[in-house]
Every structure is written in C-alpha cells, then in structure tokens.
C-alpha cells in the first residue's frame, strides 16, 4: 500500500495511491484522524482497506511530503562504510545522530531550494523509516514491528555551513532541503528492508549506488538506539544515512546548482525526484 499526503482544490488531505487514482481517506476520516500522522497511530492498514472513500485522479492532486508534520526527524550520519571512509570518520560504537526540522521537507516533484549563501549544495540519497507504533526502549527483536513503512529521502546538505563547527545542524536545515517521498510503502510490502538497492541520479548520471545491507547500524539497531533516549511516535522519521559518492568527496567536487534534477531510487519503494530551484529564504 502506498500512503500519500496531498493537496487538492486547496484542501490538504491524505490517502492511498492505487495506480492512477487516489483513495481520499482524509475526505471521510478527517474528523477522527486530521492527518496521516494521526492515522498511523491506529490500525491504519485495516482502516485504509475497509474505509469507503472518494476516488480522485492522480493528476488532480499535488503531493506533499508523506508525513508533512513529523514531530521528529532523526538523521543518521556516516552509516555506510564507504561513506565513513570517504569522510575520514572514525569507527564508532553508536550511531551519529542529528536532527532536521519539519519545515525543511519538500515533496516529490517540487523544487528543492539552493540557498543563495552557498554553492556547496550536495546530494545524499537515503532510505527513510516512518514510525507507526509508539515506543520507548524498544528491543532489537521488536523494532521492525514499530515501522509503518518506508520512503525515499534526500538529505540535501549545505556543506560549508555543515562545517562551520562540529555540529551539523545549520547545514542540514535550510528551507526545502529535505526531499521526502513520493509516498510511504507500508512495511508489509517490504520483505527485508536490509536488502534494497539504492541509487542516486544527478541529471541522469548515476552518482551513488549501494544496498541497504551495507548499513553499519541496521534499521533494528537505529530504532533500538533512538528509542533509548527519546520516545518514538507515529509519523516520526529516521533517515538512515547515505552511501559513498557524495559530491563533496569527489575529485573534482560535484555540487548541485539551480536547474539540476536529482532522483533517489530505492528498489520496492519508488523514486523521489526534485529539481533544484533558487532559494527564496
């Protein structure tokens, strides 16, 4: 099942993408569940399947980030060995974690913004995990039962701002630099999230290629660790890290510019596509 959030006729809603049509769950469930995030906290699969709802043409909706309003976006740094090596990072016993703000997210098909204060705008293709069941101190063996589904993520990084200090936050939180989507593929459709090919394309050229089996800390470990210091709630997002091949570590360096098109393709999940537009903030 592909869960989406969207706008149609100026109204925000959510539903299920079924081929070329959208089942508009928000039209009938908004009173109980005002957003997809609220629905994810319930038995969303059964509710989505059993609810009778209007159908819309896919062409009649504009996608939003699948969860436009996550309470938390936890991003994992240097979680593929090739990327750790290319950045000169040390081997660590625990994941490196930084945060994004919800207002940095941008949907599939929309422009990501190149901020005018930098020319070091880098791509980072990633698998995003969306939490469906709340939990704290989640055991490794139970971790995947807390997952609602998976999406593509582009952790667009403003490298010079990321390097201002040892803290990543400024370079990861410019407006519209977190590509997220195009939808959430529910976890029941992904047999093994640690066996997915991930490819990043820039203007049609392959720039990153890996498999999620190559993560240093796998999804179970990330959920276990994150839930040890904070409550994970429905709609929370864990961006699981990018593989090697980022633009900043290439020779010569390869940064994105206005007019470029970047695509994140993950097997069994989908393809997230964003063009790079001129930043307005």
Automatic annotation (TrEMBL):
Q: Which GO terms describe its molecular function?
A: isomerase activity; metal ion binding
One Pfam family name is FAA_hydrolase
Q: Which GO terms describe its biological process?
A: carboxylic acid metabolic process
**What InterPro entries does the record tag this protein with?**
FAH, Fumarylacetoacetase-like_C, Fumarylacetoacetase_C_sf
Keywords recorded for this protein, A-Z: Metal-binding
Q: Please spell out the taxonomic lineage of the organism that makes this protein.
A: Bacteria, Pseudomonadati, Acidobacteriota, Terriglobia, Terriglobales
Q: Which domain of life is it from?
A: Bacteria
The record's comment on protein family reads:
Belongs to the FAH family.
UniProt protein name: 2-keto-4-pentenoate hydratase/2-oxohepta-3-ene-1,7-dioic acid hydratase (Catechol pathway)
PANTHER family per the record? FUMARYLACETOACETATE HYDROLASE DOMAIN-CONTAINING PROTEIN 2A, FUMARYLACETOACETATE HYDROLASE DOMAIN-CONTAINING PROTEIN 2A-RELATED
Domain Fumarylacetoacetase-like C-terminal positions: 72-276
